[in-house]
Design goal:
5-stranded parallel β-sheet, Rossmann fold, 9 strands, alpha/beta
Protein backbone atom coordinates (compact mmCIF):
# COMPACT_ATOMS: atom_id res chain seq x y z
CA UNK A 1 0.00 0.00 0.00
CA UNK A 2 1.22 3.49 -0.88
CA UNK A 3 1.76 6.07 1.80
CA UNK A 4 -1.26 8.36 1.78
CA UNK A 5 -0.54 11.72 0.14
CA UNK A 6 -1.19 14.67 2.45
CA UNK A 7 -3.44 16.33 -0.15
CA UNK A 8 -5.43 13.14 -0.72
CA UNK A 9 -7.18 13.22 2.66
CA UNK A 10 -9.71 10.50 1.78
CA UNK A 11 -7.08 8.26 0.13
CA UNK A 12 -8.73 8.18 -3.28
CA UNK A 13 -5.61 6.49 -4.64
CA UNK A 14 -6.45 3.27 -2.80
CA UNK A 15 -10.04 3.45 -4.04
CA UNK A 16 -8.84 3.75 -7.65
CA UNK A 17 -6.43 0.84 -7.26
CA UNK A 18 -9.24 -1.36 -5.94
CA UNK A 19 -11.82 -0.61 -8.66
CA UNK A 20 -11.08 -3.90 -10.52
CA UNK A 21 -11.96 -5.79 -7.33
CA UNK A 22 -15.48 -4.37 -7.65
CA UNK A 23 -15.96 -6.68 -10.63
CA UNK A 24 -15.68 -9.65 -8.28
CA UNK A 25 -17.84 -8.16 -5.52
CA UNK A 26 -20.69 -6.92 -7.72
CA UNK A 27 -22.16 -10.30 -8.72
CA UNK A 28 -22.43 -11.25 -5.05
CA UNK A 29 -24.89 -8.39 -4.61
CA UNK A 30 -27.53 -9.99 -6.86
CA UNK A 31 -30.24 -11.20 -4.52
CA UNK A 32 -32.71 -14.03 -4.94
CA UNK A 33 -35.64 -11.59 -5.16
CA UNK A 34 -34.58 -10.00 -8.45
CA UNK A 35 -37.51 -9.41 -10.81
CA UNK A 36 -38.38 -12.22 -13.16
CA UNK A 37 -39.82 -11.63 -16.58
CA UNK A 38 -39.30 -11.78 -20.31
CA UNK A 39 -37.47 -8.46 -20.37
CA UNK A 40 -35.66 -7.23 -23.47
CA UNK A 41 -35.75 -3.48 -22.83
CA UNK A 42 -34.09 -1.74 -19.89
CA UNK A 43 -34.29 1.91 -18.86
CA UNK A 44 -31.78 2.95 -16.24
CA UNK A 45 -32.76 6.16 -14.46
CA UNK A 46 -29.96 7.85 -12.56
CA UNK A 47 -27.83 10.94 -12.23
CA UNK A 48 -24.12 11.62 -11.99
CA UNK A 49 -22.01 8.64 -11.00
CA UNK A 50 -25.12 6.48 -10.63
CA UNK A 51 -25.86 6.86 -14.34
CA UNK A 52 -22.39 5.86 -15.53
CA UNK A 53 -23.28 2.18 -15.25
CA UNK A 54 -25.98 2.69 -17.89
CA UNK A 55 -23.48 4.13 -20.36
CA UNK A 56 -21.02 1.31 -19.72
CA UNK A 57 -23.80 -1.24 -20.05
CA UNK A 58 -24.67 0.09 -23.50
CA UNK A 59 -21.02 -0.02 -24.55
CA UNK A 60 -20.57 -3.58 -23.30
CA UNK A 61 -23.69 -4.90 -25.01
CA UNK A 62 -22.99 -3.15 -28.31
CA UNK A 63 -19.41 -4.37 -28.54
CA UNK A 64 -19.90 -8.00 -27.53
CA UNK A 65 -19.72 -10.75 -30.14
CA UNK A 66 -22.99 -12.34 -29.07
CA UNK A 67 -26.03 -11.39 -31.17
CA UNK A 68 -28.25 -12.35 -28.27
CA UNK A 69 -26.54 -9.75 -26.08
CA UNK A 70 -26.60 -6.99 -28.68
CA UNK A 71 -30.38 -7.51 -29.11
CA UNK A 72 -30.97 -6.11 -25.61
CA UNK A 73 -32.25 -2.53 -25.77
CA UNK A 74 -30.87 -0.21 -23.11
CA UNK A 75 -31.61 3.44 -22.42
CA UNK A 76 -30.15 5.89 -19.91
CA UNK A 77 -32.52 8.44 -18.40
CA UNK A 78 -31.21 11.55 -16.65
CA UNK A 79 -34.33 13.45 -15.77
CA UNK A 80 -37.16 13.91 -13.27
CA UNK A 81 -39.53 11.87 -15.44
CA UNK A 82 -39.44 8.60 -17.36
CA UNK A 83 -38.95 8.43 -21.14
CA UNK A 84 -41.50 6.75 -23.40
CA UNK A 85 -39.32 3.61 -23.59
CA UNK A 86 -40.02 3.00 -19.89
CA UNK A 87 -43.61 2.17 -20.78
CA UNK A 88 -42.82 -0.37 -23.49
CA UNK A 89 -43.92 -3.98 -22.99
CA UNK A 90 -41.21 -6.20 -21.46
CA UNK A 91 -39.31 -3.18 -20.10
CA UNK A 92 -37.59 -3.21 -16.71
CA UNK A 93 -36.88 0.15 -15.09
CA UNK A 94 -33.60 0.11 -13.18
CA UNK A 95 -33.73 2.89 -10.57
CA UNK A 96 -30.11 3.75 -9.77
CA UNK A 97 -28.98 6.08 -6.98
CA UNK A 98 -25.88 5.17 -4.99
CA UNK A 99 -27.03 7.20 -2.00
CA UNK A 100 -30.64 6.23 -2.51
CA UNK A 101 -31.70 9.86 -2.09
CA UNK A 102 -31.16 11.48 -5.50
CA UNK A 103 -34.24 13.64 -6.06
CA UNK A 104 -34.48 13.25 -9.85
CA UNK A 105 -34.16 9.47 -9.57
CA UNK A 106 -36.74 9.21 -6.78
CA UNK A 107 -39.12 11.24 -8.95
CA UNK A 108 -38.73 8.66 -11.73
CA UNK A 109 -39.24 5.86 -9.20
CA UNK A 110 -42.47 7.45 -7.97
CA UNK A 111 -43.73 7.71 -11.55
CA UNK A 112 -42.86 4.07 -12.25
CA UNK A 113 -44.69 2.87 -9.15
CA UNK A 114 -47.71 5.04 -9.89
CA UNK A 115 -47.99 3.39 -13.32
CA UNK A 116 -47.29 -0.16 -12.06
CA UNK A 117 -44.11 -0.52 -14.12
CA UNK A 118 -41.63 -3.31 -13.42
CA UNK A 119 -38.73 -1.96 -11.38
CA UNK A 120 -35.38 -2.98 -9.95
CA UNK A 121 -33.87 -0.66 -7.35
CA UNK A 122 -30.12 -0.22 -7.01
CA UNK A 123 -28.66 1.77 -4.11
CA UNK A 124 -26.58 1.51 -0.95
CA UNK A 125 -29.49 2.59 1.23
CA UNK A 126 -31.55 5.74 1.60
CA UNK A 127 -35.15 6.34 0.65
CA UNK A 128 -34.91 4.22 -2.49
CA UNK A 129 -34.16 1.06 -0.54
CA UNK A 130 -36.72 1.98 2.13
CA UNK A 131 -39.45 2.21 -0.54
CA UNK A 132 -38.28 -1.04 -2.17
CA UNK A 133 -38.62 -2.86 1.15
CA UNK A 134 -41.95 -1.25 1.95
CA UNK A 135 -43.51 -2.10 -1.41
CA UNK A 136 -41.66 -5.40 -1.94
CA UNK A 137 -39.78 -4.08 -4.97
CA UNK A 138 -36.67 -6.15 -5.85
CA UNK A 139 -33.37 -4.33 -5.37
CA UNK A 140 -29.60 -4.64 -5.57
CA UNK A 141 -28.01 -3.39 -2.36
CA UNK A 142 -24.69 -1.73 -3.18
CA UNK A 143 -21.93 -1.65 -0.55
CA UNK A 144 -22.35 1.03 2.08
CA UNK A 145 -19.70 3.62 1.21
CA UNK A 146 -17.43 5.10 3.80
CA UNK A 147 -18.14 8.84 4.28
CA UNK A 148 -15.57 9.94 1.71
CA UNK A 149 -16.57 7.48 -1.02
CA UNK A 150 -18.11 9.10 -4.10
CA UNK A 151 -20.65 7.32 -6.37
CA UNK A 152 -18.51 8.03 -9.44
CA UNK A 153 -15.99 5.52 -8.11
CA UNK A 154 -18.50 2.66 -7.72
CA UNK A 155 -19.26 1.87 -11.35
CA UNK A 156 -17.58 -1.54 -11.08
CA UNK A 157 -20.03 -2.76 -8.44
CA UNK A 158 -23.07 -1.64 -10.40
CA UNK A 159 -22.03 -2.85 -13.85
CA UNK A 160 -20.93 -6.31 -12.72
CA UNK A 161 -24.10 -6.72 -10.64
CA UNK A 162 -26.37 -5.84 -13.57
CA UNK A 163 -24.47 -8.10 -15.96
CA UNK A 164 -24.74 -10.93 -13.45
CA UNK A 165 -28.47 -10.28 -13.22
CA UNK A 166 -28.72 -10.38 -17.02
CA UNK A 167 -27.03 -13.78 -16.98
CA UNK A 168 -29.57 -14.99 -14.38
CA UNK A 169 -32.32 -13.96 -16.81
CA UNK A 170 -30.57 -15.91 -19.56
CA UNK A 171 -29.93 -12.79 -21.63
CA UNK A 172 -26.14 -13.12 -21.65
CA UNK A 173 -23.56 -15.74 -20.81
CA UNK A 174 -22.30 -15.77 -17.24
CA UNK A 175 -19.54 -13.11 -17.18
CA UNK A 176 -17.80 -14.21 -13.96
CA UNK A 177 -14.76 -15.72 -15.71
CA UNK A 178 -14.31 -12.52 -17.71
CA UNK A 179 -14.55 -10.50 -14.50
CA UNK A 180 -11.86 -12.57 -12.78
CA UNK A 181 -9.53 -12.41 -15.78
CA UNK A 182 -9.98 -8.66 -16.10
CA UNK A 183 -9.34 -8.03 -12.39
CA UNK A 184 -6.15 -10.12 -12.51
CA UNK A 185 -4.83 -8.50 -15.70
CA UNK A 186 -5.44 -4.96 -14.49
CA UNK A 187 -3.80 -5.74 -11.16
CA UNK A 188 -0.75 -7.07 -13.02
CA UNK A 189 -0.57 -3.97 -15.23
CA UNK A 190 -1.54 -1.42 -12.59
CA UNK A 191 1.91 0.18 -12.47
CA UNK A 192 1.81 0.73 -16.25
CA UNK A 193 -1.60 2.41 -16.13
CA UNK A 194 -0.58 4.48 -13.14
CA UNK A 195 2.58 5.76 -14.82
CA UNK A 196 0.64 6.55 -17.98
CA UNK A 197 -1.98 8.45 -15.99
CA UNK A 198 0.69 10.45 -14.15
CA UNK A 199 2.34 11.34 -17.46
CA UNK A 200 -0.96 12.53 -18.92
CA UNK A 201 -1.58 14.70 -15.84
CA UNK A 202 1.74 16.46 -16.38
CA UNK A 203 0.87 17.14 -20.01
CA UNK A 204 -2.58 18.60 -19.32
CA UNK A 205 -1.65 20.70 -16.29
CA UNK A 206 -2.66 24.29 -16.96
CA UNK A 207 -4.68 23.25 -20.01
CA UNK A 208 -8.23 22.09 -20.66
CA UNK A 209 -8.33 18.38 -21.52
CA UNK A 210 -10.52 17.27 -24.42
CA UNK A 211 -11.05 13.54 -24.72
CA UNK A 212 -11.90 11.86 -28.01
CA UNK A 213 -12.80 8.24 -28.73
CA UNK A 214 -14.52 6.31 -31.48
CA UNK A 215 -18.33 6.25 -31.53
CA UNK A 216 -18.17 2.67 -30.22
CA UNK A 217 -16.33 3.71 -27.06
CA UNK A 218 -17.72 7.22 -26.65
CA UNK A 219 -18.91 6.42 -23.10
CA UNK A 220 -15.28 6.04 -22.01
CA UNK A 221 -14.42 9.52 -23.29
CA UNK A 222 -17.41 10.89 -21.40
CA UNK A 223 -16.34 9.20 -18.15
CA UNK A 224 -12.76 10.45 -18.53
CA UNK A 225 -14.25 13.93 -18.84
CA UNK A 226 -16.29 13.42 -15.68
CA UNK A 227 -13.23 12.21 -13.75
CA UNK A 228 -11.30 15.33 -14.74
CA UNK A 229 -14.27 17.45 -13.65
CA UNK A 230 -14.85 15.81 -10.27
CA UNK A 231 -11.38 14.60 -9.28
CA UNK A 232 -9.23 17.42 -10.68
CA UNK A 233 -11.96 20.10 -10.36
CA UNK A 234 -11.19 21.37 -13.84
CA UNK A 235 -13.21 21.85 -17.04
CA UNK A 236 -12.96 19.05 -19.59
CA UNK A 237 -14.88 18.09 -22.70
CA UNK A 238 -15.42 15.03 -24.88
CA UNK A 239 -16.62 13.97 -28.30
CA UNK A 240 -16.21 11.10 -30.74
CA UNK A 241 -14.87 10.35 -34.19
CA UNK A 242 -15.73 10.56 -37.00
CA UNK A 243 -18.53 13.04 -36.14
CA UNK A 244 -16.24 15.68 -34.61
CA UNK A 245 -14.30 15.94 -37.88
CA UNK A 246 -17.45 17.35 -39.49
CA UNK A 247 -18.05 20.20 -37.04
CA UNK A 248 -16.28 20.55 -33.66
CA UNK A 249 -12.81 20.48 -35.16
CA UNK A 250 -13.47 23.74 -36.99
CA UNK A 251 -14.11 25.49 -33.68
CA UNK A 252 -10.41 25.32 -32.85
CA UNK A 253 -9.63 27.70 -35.70
CA UNK A 254 -10.21 30.54 -33.23
CA UNK A 255 -9.65 28.93 -29.80
CA UNK A 256 -10.55 30.84 -26.65
CA UNK A 257 -8.45 28.70 -24.30
CA UNK A 258 -5.46 26.35 -24.23
CA UNK A 259 -6.35 22.72 -24.84
CA UNK A 260 -4.69 19.33 -24.76
CA UNK A 261 -6.29 16.53 -26.75
CA UNK A 262 -6.41 12.95 -25.51
CA UNK A 263 -7.40 10.21 -27.95
CA UNK A 264 -8.63 6.80 -26.77
CA UNK A 265 -7.88 4.66 -29.80
CA UNK A 266 -9.08 1.10 -30.28
CA UNK A 267 -6.77 -0.86 -32.59
CA UNK A 268 -9.74 -2.90 -33.90
CA UNK A 269 -11.58 0.17 -35.17
CA UNK A 270 -12.29 0.78 -38.85
CA UNK A 271 -8.97 1.40 -40.67
CA UNK A 272 -10.22 4.74 -41.96
CA UNK A 273 -11.26 5.76 -38.45
CA UNK A 274 -7.81 4.85 -37.12
CA UNK A 275 -6.38 7.18 -39.74
CA UNK A 276 -8.69 9.92 -38.48
CA UNK A 277 -7.07 9.81 -35.03
CA UNK A 278 -3.65 10.47 -36.53
CA UNK A 279 -4.81 13.10 -39.01
CA UNK A 280 -6.93 14.95 -36.44
CA UNK A 281 -3.92 15.21 -34.12
CA UNK A 282 -1.80 16.36 -37.07
CA UNK A 283 -4.12 19.14 -38.20
CA UNK A 284 -4.63 20.38 -34.64
CA UNK A 285 -0.85 20.46 -34.26
CA UNK A 286 -0.84 23.03 -37.05
CA UNK A 287 -2.88 25.22 -34.70
CA UNK A 288 -0.34 24.65 -31.90
CA UNK A 289 -2.34 22.07 -29.95
CA UNK A 290 -0.59 19.05 -28.46
CA UNK A 291 -2.20 15.62 -28.42
CA UNK A 292 -1.73 12.32 -26.62
CA UNK A 293 -2.93 9.10 -28.23
CA UNK A 294 -3.76 6.30 -25.80
CA UNK A 295 -3.88 2.83 -27.31
CA UNK A 296 -6.70 1.08 -25.48
CA UNK A 297 -5.43 -2.16 -23.90
CA UNK A 298 -6.45 -5.21 -25.92
CA UNK A 299 -8.54 -8.12 -24.71
CA UNK A 300 -12.16 -8.83 -23.78
CA UNK A 301 -14.55 -5.89 -23.94
CA UNK A 302 -14.84 -5.74 -20.17
CA UNK A 303 -11.05 -5.56 -19.92
CA UNK A 304 -10.81 -2.77 -22.49
CA UNK A 305 -13.45 -0.77 -20.64
CA UNK A 306 -11.97 -1.08 -17.16
CA UNK A 307 -8.31 -0.78 -18.10
CA UNK A 308 -8.98 2.36 -20.14
CA UNK A 309 -10.98 3.88 -17.30
CA UNK A 310 -8.22 2.96 -14.87
CA UNK A 311 -5.81 5.15 -16.83
CA UNK A 312 -8.32 8.00 -16.76
CA UNK A 313 -8.83 7.69 -13.01
CA UNK A 314 -5.07 7.91 -12.41
CA UNK A 315 -4.73 10.85 -14.81
CA UNK A 316 -7.42 12.87 -13.04
CA UNK A 317 -6.06 11.89 -9.62
CA UNK A 318 -2.52 13.04 -10.35
CA UNK A 319 -3.80 16.23 -11.98
CA UNK A 320 -5.61 17.02 -8.73
CA UNK A 321 -2.35 16.58 -6.82
CA UNK A 322 -0.53 18.84 -9.27
CA UNK A 323 -3.18 21.48 -8.60
CA UNK A 324 -2.83 20.96 -4.86
CA UNK A 325 -6.46 19.99 -4.35
CA UNK A 326 -8.08 17.03 -2.57
CA UNK A 327 -9.56 14.90 -5.39
CA UNK A 328 -12.49 13.38 -3.49
CA UNK A 329 -14.84 16.16 -2.28
CA UNK A 330 -17.25 17.85 -4.69
CA UNK A 331 -18.02 20.93 -2.63
CA UNK A 332 -19.79 22.82 -5.42
CA UNK A 333 -22.26 19.95 -5.93
CA UNK A 334 -23.03 19.72 -2.22
CA UNK A 335 -23.49 23.50 -1.99
CA UNK A 336 -25.82 23.46 -4.99
CA UNK A 337 -27.97 20.69 -3.48
CA UNK A 338 -28.52 22.82 -0.37
CA UNK A 339 -29.61 25.73 -2.55
CA UNK A 340 -32.46 23.59 -3.93
CA UNK A 341 -33.94 22.83 -0.52
Amino acid sequence: MDLQHEIDKENLLETIKKIPEQLLAGPELVRSNVPKGDFNTFVLSGMGGSALVGELLKTYLKTTDSRRETAIKTHVNRSYSLPKEAYEPNCLNIISSYSGNTEETLSCFEEALKNNLDCLGMASGGKLIDVCKEKNIPFILLPKPHPQFQPRMGYGYALSAILKYFSVLGLINDPLIKFRDTAEKIKADLAIYRALGEDIAKKVKGKTPIIYASYQYRSLAMIWKIMFNENAKTPAFWNYLPELNHNEMVGFTLPQANFHFIYLRNRDDYPQNLKRFEKTAKILKEYNFESTIIEMPEGEIIHRIFSTLQIGCFASYYLALLYGIDPTPVAMVEKFKKMLI
